[in-house]
Amino acid sequence: MSEPDRLYFRQLLSGRDFAANDVIAQQMRNFAYLIGDRETGDCVVVDPAYAANDLLDILENDGLHLSGVLVSHHHPDHVGGSMMGFELKGLAELLERVSVPVHVNTHEADWVSRVTGIPLSDLTSHEHGDKVAVGAVDIELLHTPGHTPGSQCFLLDGRLVAGDTLFLEGCGRTDFPGGDVDEMFRSLQALAALPGDPTVFPGHWYSQEPSASLSDVRKTNYVYRASNLDQWRMVMGG
Ligand SMILES: [Fe+2]
What we know:
The protein has about 240 residues and is an alpha/beta fold. About 25% of the residues lie in helices and about 30% in strands. It has one domain (about 5-235): Metallo-beta-lactamase, Chain A. Bound molecules: fe (ii) ion. Fe (ii) ion (FE2) binds near residues 73, 75, 147, 164 and 172. Keywords: Hydrolase, Metal-binding, Zinc.
């Protein structure tokens, strides 16, 4: 989009900016994101977990309204559900308050439905390269399997919202159900090749800084020391 002031973009830390008193949210250090168009008031939330109502309150206090949800992947710390014996709130709680499309990768839809209890028919499935328009803001959905089969990243206006595919230091684990070491290598390489040096906004705060340029991440993140699949498998302990 051309007018920079129209873009509304907020990075919110769980246990601090939302779900402030939730001990699990504090420990997990998830980031949720709000992406909107200030002029039309449309806004999407990326990965609403723990306290979806807090996230809705924040964007509504800023004068926007929710028009959709983007899901990076199905893990309960991103969408709610049962994790380590705890019931985390998330998508289901959000949809009780407002009915909006939930955008998932087609390879993640079954998993998201199972974890959240939301019927498959209430999820909007996408292919790699699809775009979701939020007012005048176009968000490109990138399929980046590896952490999970249908993990996806979001590219908009010089920003890469990377979910649990790429952190500033390291990447998402590949040893959970549906994880795949080789797919992760290919996904990370594809992200590294993105043009325009976008700023990387990860799904967790596992580093000093909360965001960094992709060129910096390529220089400093050990996941980019492996230049081929054999090296990568060794890095990942395969
Ligand atoms: Fe995850």
